[in-house]
Amino acid sequence: MKIVHTAESETRRAPSEWVTGAVWMDATPAESSPGAGVFRVSFEPGARTNWHTHPEGQILHVIAGAGRAATEGGPVTQIKTGDVVYFAPDERHWHGAAPDAFMVHLAINPATNSDGGTDWLEPVTGEQYEENG
User: Where are the domains of the chain?
Assistant: First the structure.
C-alpha cells in the first residue's frame, strides 16, 4: 500500500499551453508500473483543456459542479457531479467547466505500459466549446 498525503501533492496552475481560462491541478503522477496518474483538476466557469490524447486512455470522475466534454467528431456533452467519463487510448478529446459553473474532476491516467502522460494539442475554439453545448 502507498498513500500520498495532501501535503505531498503539488497544487499548481495548469500551464497556459494546455488550457483556456483558469485551471488548477493537484498532481500525483504515476509511480511504477502498473500505476496511474491521479489529478484533481478545478476549472472556473468557461475554462477548458486543449485538445489532447493519452496513450492508455483517461477516466474522469466529476466530483463537483458542471462541465462539458467532447471527442473529435462527436457532440459536446454535458457532465455533472457524479458522472464518470471514459476516453479510449489515443482518443482525441477535451473537457472543462460549463460557461456558468465551476467544475472539479478527478482525472485518472492509466500507466500500465506508459508513463500515463498527455499529448497536448491545440486550443479548443469558442465555436467548438459551444457546439451543441
Answer: 6-130
% pLDDT > 90, the chain: 72
pTM for the full model?
0.88
Residue carrying C-alpha cell 459536446: 76
The grid cell for 95 is: 473537457
When computed from its CA atoms, the radius of gyration of the chain, rounded to whole angstroms, is 14
Question: What sections of 28-69 are H helices per DSSP?
Answer: none
For domain 6-130, give the CATH number.
2.60.120.10
- Contacting residues for 71 by C-beta, under 8 A, at least 6 apart: 87, 91, 92, 93
Burial class (CB in 10 A: 0-12, 13-18, 19+), 4: exposed
Contacts of 76-85 spanning 24+ positions with Cβ under 8 A:
76/128, 76/129, 76/130, 76/131, 76/132, 76/133, 78/133, 79/103, 84/59, 84/60, 85/59, 85/60
How many DSSP H helices and E strands does the chain contain?
A: 1, 12
Confidence at residue 113, expressed as pLDDT on a 0 to 100 scale: 80
d(CA 85, CA 58): 8
